[in-house]
Design goal:
Blueprint (H helix, E strand, L loop, with lengths): L4 E2 L16 E8 L6 H15 L2 E8 L6 H10 L4 E6 L5 H11 L4 E4 L11 H9 L4 E9 L4 H17 L8 E8 H8 L8 H7 L3 E9 L11 H13 L4 H26 L8 H34 L6 E6 L10 H6 L1
Parallel strand pairs: 2-3, 2-5, 3-4, 6-8
Antiparallel strand pairs: 1-8, 4-9, 5-7, 6-7
Helix pairs in contact: 9-10
Amino acid sequence: MNQPERHDPTAPIQSIERPCPGLLSIVIPCYNEDAIIEATHARICSIAPQLGMELEVLYIDDGSQDSTLEKLKQLASGDSRIHVVEFSRNFGQQAAMSAGLEMAQGDAVVIIDADLQDPPEVIPAMITKWRTGVDVAYGRRKSRDGESTFKLVTAKLFYRFFARVMPYPVPVDTGDFKLCDRAVVDAVCALPEKRRYLRSLVPWAGFSHAPVDYDRDARTAGETKYSAFRLLSLAADAILLSSDKPIRLIWLLAALFAFIGTCGLITGLTLPTKETLALPTLFALLGFISAAQTVTIAIVGEYVVRCYREAQARPPFVIRGKNSSTNQAHSSPSDQDRQAT
């Protein structure tokens, strides 16, 4: 059995009474998922009787260009547990998840993607962890079907590099699939950042964390929304929004150049003229130093840009409309589950 990880080592471990049955909110960001969204909802409904909690499902439509929104509205018209939030344009997955957290009313909140690569059948195990006193039960991937060797290797390296540069503990081999207690959700939503990376903000809040291992499935319909450029952009945000270590590395770079310069000066003063460094070597050294200076300026610029965006204080998303059944806002699992399955 996986033991809880306490992100605040000084915090006392104590048993916590969870609401019974309590309300579970499931937040599902959606962007162009019309090929799979109905199957996603059917899978969510199929596990509802196993949850032991009342249920609300928040679908956040992140400016889809296909028929995702229309299908969500149809689902919501026949199921009082569904709430559909429509963005005015595509603001990105992090903004969609943030909107879901802010609107969720549950005693516990699950974040899961709409593509079914993270199986909803893992959610009951997360609830079991939560009821034992764990505040964040996060999905930890044992395997990742349908992904290339290159993506598997680069993802593994990035997760470990990201964990190393963070000033607080961050779990590896995890994504956004997790269950958070109400106190964790409130703490994250209270943060003033407009540009967010939730995989670092949730661990920053502290509380107790424990993994729930699972096998990640291959995508069965639709296609990934992350190109190589978007993945690199997300990786840059992950590091620069969460850690100041990249900018501190500049001091090490400056020390390295000072050492190289000192060695070059000593060499030039001690060696005879005919044995001094050749001109091409000097050009190569100058080119290396110039490139390093450019990279240094770029890193500082990336931080400045993000500071500027925060100073603008624009909202991370704009809601165009909301849609839900006119019936009771929350209902316990009932005949709706049998009808969906």
